[in-house]
Amino acid sequence: MLHIDDTDDVRTVTLDRPERRNALTPDTLDALEAAVVDPPTPVVHLHGAGSAFCAGADLDAVSDVAAATEAGETDAACEFAAHGQRVARAVADSAAVVVAGVDGAARGGGVELALACDLRVATPEATFAETGVTFGLFGAWGGTARLPRVVGEGNAMDIALSGRTVDAEEALRMGLVSRIVDDPATVAAELAVADHTALGRLKPLVRATRSDEDRERAERDAFADLVARNADALQRD
């Protein structure tokens, strides 16, 4: 589920499936895309309910993709990756400045969602991990393009290949987050004080040279191959 709360200057978007650590279903991805495409505010604050920011893709959805792949639906995995990539691009291309308030665990697609945001702010309890490699996959929602740009190739390789957990302090040191604060909503409110026209003009200028389509296409193809190779193991009872 997704909850939206608008004030004059900040749209707060809450991923609200705390019992599933805010894992993203296809419907939730669509709702998130709609929430960020043309918001009525200059700033969007994205955060998670409960103890997690976002656990990434819902494992039932991944299981369905694996089953479809094994049944011969060869485009299922590419379509799954393309769906997440499209939503991440919508976040990145939003007319608003999007602040990820990482207030707990970010895993897999949750890390990729945060990477698509313009600013990542962590609470002391925040942790990050790209865990896909531990069960034969990797994040395919734009993370292979965005992660090395944000933290550098060496750190990106470490995070992606090891699947290890990075705490808030290490995330700050490597540039994965910009600040550690008690309440990320205060940062969103701080940004909203700036001139709204300036915010809208500045964001696309900073992002102007960032085109991910070619890398995303290669990412989708590689992800689909891995789903095909690991379809049995990925399906849930």
TrEMBL record:
Transcription keyword on record: no
Protein's UniProt keywords contain Ligase: no
Keywords, in A-Z order: Isomerase
Gene3D superfamilies: 2-enoyl-CoA Hydratase, Chain A, domain 1
SUPFAM superfamilies according to UniProt: ClpP/crotonase
GO molecular function: isomerase activity
Region forming the signal peptide: none
Family membership: Belongs to the enoyl-CoA hydratase/isomerase family.
Name of the molecule in the record: Enoyl-CoA hydratase/isomerase family protein
Source species: Halomarina oriensis
